[in-house]
Write a structure and sequence with these properties.
With about 130 residues, the protein is an alpha+beta fold. The chain contains four helices and six strands. It has a single domain (about 5-130), classed as Nuclear Transport Factor 2, Chain: A (Roll), CATH 3.10.450. The longest helix is centred in the N-terminal third of the chain and has 16 residues, at about 5-20. The relative contact order is 0.18.
């Protein structure tokens, strides 16, 4: 994937996270792809990835994910993002949250994500959720 294609892929991926359609996020992954967040158990397969995306979409109905940058690094790509939203989903705190993070992508043979390892500052996220 050249630089322009990677930029388009990253922008479209961010838009999928904003769409409130978890299935749209999952479509960026290989059938057996995986998404791991902060060293948690990986979500493997599109239905599991969609469930993970849905959990964020439910917690933050107004969620906006913006691409900060995406760059190639040998056989991987690094997708840097920001997430902003209000935790008004079921049982939510009502607090606004803004966090940044990144995903390290490994692509499969079809040009979709085979493996994504994501990271964000969990302590800062929890602090923003629980601020009174």
């Amino acid at each position: 994937m050249d630089h322009a294609e990677l930029q388009r892929f990253g922008m479209s991926y961010a838009a999928a996270w904003c769409s409130q359609s978890a299935a749209c996020v999952a479509e960026f992954y290989e059938e057996g792809g995986s998404l791991q967040i902060n060293l948690g158990l990986p979500s493997v397969g599109r239905s599991s990835i969609a469930a993970t995306a849905k959990s964020f979409m439910t917690a933050f109905p107004d969620m906006v994910v913006s691409m900060v940058d995406v760059s190639a690094n040998q056989d991987r790509a690094i997708f840097q993002w920001t997430l902003a939203g209000t935790n008004t989903g079921p049982g939510g705190s009502g607090n606004a949250v803004q966090i940044g993070g990144y995903e390290i992508w490994q692509f499969g043979g079809t040009g979709l994500i085979l493996r994504s390892r994501g990271h964000f500052d969990e302590a800062d996220y929890q602090r923003q959720l629980n601020v009174k």
